[in-house]
Structure formats: C-alpha cells, structure tokens
Amino acid sequence: MYDYGEPYGFERYLKEYGTGTNRLRTDRLAQVGALKAGDILANGTHVWSDPREGGNGSVFLHLDIGGGWFGTWFDVPARIPIALRTADNKKPRVLRKGDILATGEQIFSDPVENGKGLTNLVLAEGEYRVSIDVPTCIPIAILTPEDNAPKALWEFHKGK
User: Fold this and answer.
1) Is 81 buried (19+), middle (13-18) or exposed (0-12) by CB count in 10 A?
2) Per the domain annotation, does 4 fall within a domain?
C-alpha cells in the first residue's frame, strides 16, 4: 500500500518537496497519494479504492471509468496535483503553456494528447524540464488565487 503519512497543506509541501512523499491536499486538490476511496475528482469521476504504490515514481489510482463493475486502475505520476470536486463544482479549464500547476511547476509547452489516452506535459522548474505522461481522464489542478498558497509557490517554477 501507498502510505507516506498524513496529507499536508502548501506550507509543508514546500518543505517536503523532493522527498517523495507527495501528500499535498487541500479542499480543491490533492496529489495522487493523498487521495482516498470515496473522493470525487473535478470531472465527476469517483475514486474507488485507496491509491497503491506503482513503480518509478507513480501511484496506481482506481477509478470508476471503463471496466464495467470493476473500474480501471490508472498509473499516475505521484507529483501531479489532481483537481477535486468542490461545492461550486467548477470544471477545470484546459491546460495550456504558461499555466502553473498547484504543485508549483510551470507547463513549458502546450500539452499534447497522444491518441492513446495519455497527455504529455513538459514541466519547467528553474532550468530543468521534465516530460511526463498523465492519463487524459485525470483533471489536473492549476494554481489559482483561491488556493491562498504562499507566494513562494507562485515563484517555485523559477528555481530555488
């Protein structure tokens, strides 16, 4: 099972960054490892089981998509912030170049869907770029003023 302790907010996220815990959670978003059975993603998808540890920095997420009575397990990068359903029920908008994810990384180029159910994101953090594939059905959370995140998180993508 995937269990790296209790979820935490933005302040602790800035201290934990790079440790591999990936447990950021607020009312509006959660990293994959901070999700739990019963959560509802911003697109209305339900989380059926607690996340399980995947391989190479990923977490398996069990959602009520496809698979009939049994749902489907998705391999999701652990660092990705996922948008949760909120009281106002706003759908997340389409990601684009320049957006800042709720975890502080900036989208370096427009996301590209590969036609096989994955969206490729190129993320920037300072001088570094990382390319990751995320299941297209996963709503990604971008940083918004409503998050009341520390100023340091808004500048995070520029490097330390």
Assistant:
1) buried
2) no
What are φ and ψ of residue 62, in 5° steps? Answer: -100, 110
Q: How many domains does the chain have?
A: 1
H helix or E strand, kind and range, residue 153: helix 151-155
Spans of the chain, pLDDT less than 50: none
Ordered alpha helix ranges (H), the chain: 10-16, 151-155
Q: Distance between CA atoms of 67 and 62, rounded to whole angstroms?
A: 10
Q: What is the pLDDT of residue 146?
A: 83
CA 48-57-160 angle, 5° bins: 120
Task: Give the C-alpha separation, 140 to 6, whole Å.
Answer: 21
Cβ count near 129 (within 10 Å): 12
1, part of any domain = no
Q: Is residue 3 part of a domain?
A: no
**Could you tell me the two tokens for 35?**
């999700």
Contact predicate 106/100, CB 8 Å: yes
And the tokens for 62? Answer: 């069990």
- How many CB atoms lie under 10 A from the CB of residue 34? 25
Residue 53 lies in a domain: yes
